[in-house]
Amino acid sequence: MRTFSIIASAALLLACSACVSPEQQAAAAAAQRQADEAQCDGYGFKRNTDAFANCLLKLQEIRAQEENTEEIRRASMPPPFWPYGYPGYRPYW
């Protein structure tokens, strides 16, 4: 019984450590926005123009596509303890 409580406590602690507060999310979003604006400034776009807004939008689209690609890659990987290495494996017997 004591082992179960230790495992449950460790799992709870691990789950809580992965949480991000709304303030941290807002700070990360603001930092990302600043980085995007600096990048578009570096490309030579003038602020408060359609071209600058399109630059910001394109950077956001690229980031979303990269996240989707990473999720697809992760979903297509076999579990770490797959019995034969990959899902399409057929034993020789």
Number of helices: 3
**N-to-C span:** 43 Å
Oligomer: single chain
List unreliable stretches of 5+ residues.
Answer: none
Explain this structure to me?
- This protein has helices spanning 2-17, 22-43, 50-76.
- With 93 residues, it is mostly helical.
- α2 (22-43) crosses α3.
- The longest helix is centred in the C-terminal third of the chain and has 27 residues, at 50-76.
What attributes does this structure have?
93 residues, mainly alpha, 3 helices
Fold topology:
Blueprint: H1 2-17, H2 22-43, H3 50-76
How would you summarize what this structure contains?
With 93 residues, the protein is mostly helical.
